[in-house]
TrEMBL record:
<feature type="transmembrane region" description="Helical">
    <location>
        <begin position="165"/>
        <end position="182"/>
    </location>
</feature>
<feature type="domain" description="Sodium/calcium exchanger membrane region">
    <location>
        <begin position="35"/>
        <end position="183"/>
    </location>
</feature>
<dbReference type="GO" id="GO:0015386">
    <property type="term" value="F:potassium:proton antiporter activity"/>
</dbReference>
<feature type="transmembrane region" description="Helical">
    <location>
        <begin position="309"/>
        <end position="330"/>
    </location>
</feature>
<feature type="transmembrane region" description="Helical">
    <location>
        <begin position="210"/>
        <end position="228"/>
    </location>
</feature>
<dbReference type="InterPro" id="IPR004837">
    <property type="entry name" value="NaCa_Exmemb"/>
</dbReference>
<keyword id="KW-1133">Transmembrane helix</keyword>
<feature type="transmembrane region" description="Helical">
    <location>
        <begin position="35"/>
        <end position="55"/>
    </location>
</feature>
<dbReference type="InterPro" id="IPR052946">
    <property type="entry name" value="Alkaline_pH_Ca-Antiporter"/>
</dbReference>
<keyword id="KW-0472">Membrane</keyword>
<dbReference type="Pfam" id="PF01699">
    <property type="entry name" value="Na_Ca_ex"/>
</dbReference>
<feature type="domain" description="Sodium/calcium exchanger membrane region">
    <location>
        <begin position="213"/>
        <end position="353"/>
    </location>
</feature>
<keyword id="KW-0812">Transmembrane</keyword>
<feature type="transmembrane region" description="Helical">
    <location>
        <begin position="98"/>
        <end position="119"/>
    </location>
</feature>
<feature type="transmembrane region" description="Helical">
    <location>
        <begin position="248"/>
        <end position="266"/>
    </location>
</feature>
<feature type="transmembrane region" description="Helical">
    <location>
        <begin position="278"/>
        <end position="303"/>
    </location>
</feature>
<feature type="transmembrane region" description="Helical">
    <location>
        <begin position="337"/>
        <end position="355"/>
    </location>
</feature>
């Protein structure tokens, strides 16, 4: 099974890239669109697989960082391709996608990881120091980038002025860079698993295998961004056809890019390595804000139309609830089924209210 999976992850990225070249700029019939969507999903899975190979080579917690950055590159690419395509809902697309990513990672992925570990070991144990620092970074970044625009008075709509957006972008990038330094250099031990992981793969990938995976990772990321551009109209039309608000497009993007990472987090949780799962969850949330906001700020120079980053009242309440619940979960360094269920309930509330505001 592992051989088949490895072969598929080697074949899918170049195949997706070839299909991208063939369909670019063309009107596609439904059967071809189905193939494109399948290749898009396969490319996402392949990208995460190759990121994990490289991560296995360099070790934790740097491995979780590589996976988080790879997923965020996909997120930024999807947001920009949809924003470039235009439309009335693109002004809030970046906000909707980043907020959805934060809610899904901090509640969905974290809650599911705690649930899986608690079901196996009764109590999920992790490092409160590192996890708490990551949560603090998420709360601060989300507040600076998506709460403050609602209350600033430089513009009548929930958006930053030019200097305010520049400040938010620099602050986000700086905090993300500091988090990377703390996680991987100065206080690496705070983000390491409490218990040593079982030696399921005694031999790490060779340098040649890691290099091949790095190349295929870049090809897969290019394919994902390109195929998303091809399918951008179909995604928006599908959301409209279902009668969902246009903001739900952001949720679709977040679910698409975070599904493979969710699988990786659950896999580590099943091995009683919930710390790695939490590194993935909170690290992805930090990368989602810390890298996406600066990228969108730079892109806004040539993108037409306003850029609304300010959250609505319901979203701010959900973010505040996430912050409070997260702090109470992280502080003891131990969590049970109850904490897992609380996080999953908040995630379910977010998804429900996103579909039925």
């Amino acid at each position: 099974m592992r051989t088949v999976l490895n072969r598929s992850t080697v074949v899918l990225p170049p195949l997706a890239l070839a299909v991208l070249v063939a369909v670019w700029g063309r009107h596609l019939p439904i059967p071809v669109e189905v193939v494109v969507v399948a290749l898009l999903g396969g490319s996402v899975l392949a990208a995460v697989h190759h990121a994990e190979v490289v991560a296995h080579r360099v070790g934790e917690p740097f491995g979780a960082l590589i996976l988080a950055v790879a997923v965020t590159v996909i997120e930024v690419g999807l947001i920009l391709t949809l924003m470039v395509s235009g439309g009335s809902g693109t002004a809030t697309l970046a906000r909707d996608t980043v907020f959805a990513a934060v809610m899904i990672t901090c509640n969905g992925i974290a809650g599911l990881s705690l649930l899986v570990t608690a079901l196996r070991s009764h109590v999920a144990v992790f490092n409160a120091e590192g996890t708490g620092a990551a949560l603090a970074a998420v709360i601060t970044l989300a507040t600076l980038s998506m709460v403050l625009p609602t209350f600033t008075i430089s513009a009548p709509t929930p958006q930053f002025s030019g200097p305010q957006l520049a400040f938010a972008a620099v602050a986000s990038l700086t905090l993300y860079a500091l988090f990377v330094i703390v996680q991987n250099i100065r206080h690496r031990e705070y983000f390491m698993p409490v218990a040593a992981p079982p030696d399921e793969h005694p031999d790490s990938p060779s340098g040649r295998q890691a290099l091949i995976s790095l190349v295929l990772l870049l090809v897969a990321l290019t394919s994902v961004v390109g195929l998303a551009k091809v399918e951008s109209g179909t995604i928006e039309a599908g959301v409209a056809r279902l009668g969902l608000p246009h903001s739900f497009v952001g949720v679709v993007i977040a679910v698409l890019i975070l599904l493979p990472e969710t699988l990786a987090a659950v896999r580590n949780a099943r091995r009683d390595q919930v710390q790695i799962s939490l590194n993935l969850a909170f690290g992805s949330a930090i990368a989602s804000i810390g890298l996406t906001i600066p990228a969108i700020a730079v892109a806004s120079i040539w993108l037409k139309g306003p850029l609304h980053l300010g959250l609505g009242a319901t979203q701010i309440v959900l973010l505040a609830l996430t912050a409070g619940v997260g702090i109470l979960t992280v502080m003891p360094g131990r969590a049970t089924l109850l904490q897992a269920a609380v996080h999953l309930a908040v995630c379910a509330a977010f998804l429900f209210l996103a579909a039925s505001p």
